[in-house]
Amino acid sequence: MVNLNRINILLLVAFWVSFFLNIQYANAQSLSLYTPFTKVTASPGDKIDFQVEVLNNSNVILTSDIRVNGLPENWEYEIKSGSWSVERISVKPKDKQSLTFHVFVPLKVEKGSYNLSLIAGNSLPIQIDLTEEGTYKTEFSSSQLNIEGAVNSTFTYNTELYNRTADVQVYAFRAQVPSGWNAIFKSNNQQVSSVTVDPNEISNITIEVTPAENAKSGKYEIPITASNGQNLSELILESVVTGSYDLKLSSESGLLSDHIRAGNRKQLKFQVKNTGSSVLNNVQLNGSAPANWEISFEPSKINKIGPGESQTVLLNLKASNKALSGDYLVDLEAKVPEKTSKVSLRVTVKASLFTGWLGLLIIFFSIYLIYYLFKKYGRR
Questions:
Q1: Where does the sequence pass through the membrane (predicted)?
Q2: 35, 114, 234, 240 - which has most CB atoms within 10 Å?
Q3: CA dihedral 37, 135, 185, 208 (to 10 degrees)
């Protein structure tokens, strides 16, 4: 009887030892972690997301705490399943669960390779390579700092203001422009004098610079600053003024009125003058006349007019045969892509000679008819 009890005790002890050994074996060997990307490249301030699968290859339910080893100083992490933060996980036999492992790289960090491990029954080594050294400052930049244009044009610069700090920052703008010049700042198409930028975010700022009317040709440097009270970021914009575009269309006589008979043609001389400081290329001449009139310029296009120079053109007009006596407006224009000059010519239409003679004949015939009738029947 005693021997039987000893045997039962030994069997019971062997069972529990085997049970715990199996659990330890399962925990150590069957619960494993998998992510397809174990080495990534990132920049300071980045948030890196690792999609992780927790696999249970055993025949029992396994539960394990989840932790991170080797996390660098000032780095942060978060383990989530959906919207829930996870610290411990249970996986059914021959099943898997999905987690997202978020790693937050600080803004102020040195360039190099960083190694850490995600542990849940097994270890998942991860390497993060930083390709640049992090900063704790503001960056003010533009892809195009030099713009060329006429003195009467607006120079538009597209810039980026990058808040590379860990706090919300309010930046005030300032532009040092030459006398008579003007500069405005825009964010989201609204004129602003300051903007608020969240940590590690970029704000797109448009800067519009308008030269003075009398600005001479040349290159102008315009310092632009964005300051938050603690530090200041600066851009040097360059505006290259090439001259102004302007032209004037006028009649050679200086008058903008004339006369014509219905159905007749008339030719008038006009002048196109370059009143700007830049060469005018491909000057187009057009006109608009009343219905059934004919209008054209000769030539209809001027290839080039230098500053201060003039070019004479001919305006060909033909009034409609059915045009009634009276005043008519003819619209004329000379234009280049940068500028347009418009004038209106008042044309007075007189009756045609045929109509005049016909009217006289009708009058004479009417007088004669009255005289004849009076002479024939007046004595009765």
A1: 354-374
A2: 114
A3: -80
285 C-beta neighbours (distance < 10 Å), count: 21
Q: Check if the beta carbon of residue 104 is closer than 8 Å to that of residue 77.
A: yes
Alpha helices in the chain (DSSP H): 2-29, 353-377
Q: Do residues 277 and 213 touch, judged by C-beta distance below 8 A? A: no
Burial (CB < 10 A; 0-12, 13-18, 19+), residue 283, is buried
Tens digit of each residue's pLDDT (9 = 90 or more) over 47-69: 999 999 999 999 999 999 999 99
Q: Which residue has the tokens 């519009």?
A: 208
Q: Is the pLDDT of residue 148 over 60?
A: yes
Complete domains list, the chain, with CATH: 30-130 (2.60.40.10), 138-241 (2.60.40.10), 247-352 (2.60.40.10)
Q: Judge contact between 132 and 44, C-beta under 8 A.
A: yes
Looking at mean pLDDT, say which of 17-21, 205-209, 369-373 comes out highest.
Answer: 205-209
Please report, for residues 53, 262, 357, the alpha-carbon distance to residue 327 in angstroms, rounded to integers and kept in the order given.
88, 12, 22
Residue 20 pLDDT > 70, yes or no? no
H helices of 113-254, where?
none
CB 271 within 8 A of CB 254: no
Q: How far apart are CA 116 and CA 328, in angstroms?
A: 87
Query: What is the pTM for the complete model shown?
Result: 0.49
In three-state secondary structure terms, 211 is: coil
Residue 345: how many CB atoms within 10 A of its CB? 21
Our CA angle for 255, 259, 264, nearest 5°, is: 135
Query: In residues, how long is the chain?
Result: 380
Distance CA 22, CA 17 (A): 9
Nearest CA-CA partner of 64 in 118, 6, 129:
118
